[in-house]
Write a structure and sequence with these properties.
Structural class: mainly alpha
Radius of gyration: 23 Å
Largest sheet: 3 strands, antiparallel
Number of domains: 2
Bound molecules: zinc ion
Strand order of the largest sheet: 1-2-3
Strand content: 5-15%
Shape: flat
Distance between the termini: 34 Å
Number of strands: 3
Number of helices: 4
Helix content: 40-55%
Oligomer: single chain
Amino acid sequence: MTMPRPSAWIPFLVPLIFLGAIGLAAAVLALKPDSILSWVGYGVAGLLLLWLAGTTFWPARADRACPECGQEALERMDPTTTMGLCCTQCTYQDPLASGWFLAEEEVEGLDDLVRQQRQTMRDSKR
Ligand SMILES: [Zn+2]
């Protein structure tokens, strides 16, 4: 029987580390609710709640501004992939730029697109 590599255990330790941090924070709050450390904890928790609300109500949008002409005219070069951007107002093209955020907004079945891309990459390696 062989033991798994040490790095294989890390994904199993992460939830335990988070639970330990939560338990430690609860212990600090229970033992000294008005200490400086508790107020720092309240501040961090408040910032996390603000961040959660901000990203929920104002989610990220794709930046369609062209780096060359500044127009809101960036498009994906190929609608069958998430790689490559081009501008419809000038000659700007970048085949290595990620069009992931644009694809997220445009494509309904993004999972199918990603599966198709992976299959194309596997087929090209053979
Ligand atoms: Zn442009």
